[in-house]
Amino acid sequence: AHSPAKRGREKPRISSTSRQDFKLALRQPLLPKGNMQITRQHNRSKQQAKVWVDDKLVEMLTQFGDSVSDASHRWQGDTLEFAFRAGGLVSFRGTLAVSDSDLRLELPFPFLAKGFEPRAVDEVNKWLDENL
Description:
By secondary structure, the protein is α+β, with helices and mostly antiparallel strands. The chain has four helices and five strands, in the order ααβαββββα. It has helices at 4-8, 16-27, 46-62, 117-131; strands at residues 34-41, 68-76, 79-86, 90-98, 102-109. It has a five-stranded antiparallel β-sheet, with helices on one face. The radius of gyration is 23 Å and the shape is globular.
């Protein structure tokens, strides 16, 4: 017979379903991400809008000063895929899709940068107001 003290120390049994759920949970990111999404209409043709994006992308990123580095981009059809580092620590990857009528920016925010998302959204919107 087991004493009450020993019963409290017994390892809990984990069913195979629980183990699978646990393994799946370990594969998921532990830190949540936000997602900046901004859609703006433009009054250009799709091709003119793509040229405008190419011309203005560097300018838009430089508004954040020295905190942005290692910027890169490439077009995949009508979607610009871009990446950069902020503060030398946090990596970002986003897209800017160009349609006949609008631009759609999507930029997932890593948890470490989540606190800056509202300011970044404001700054990008302000920049678009002034330049689009």
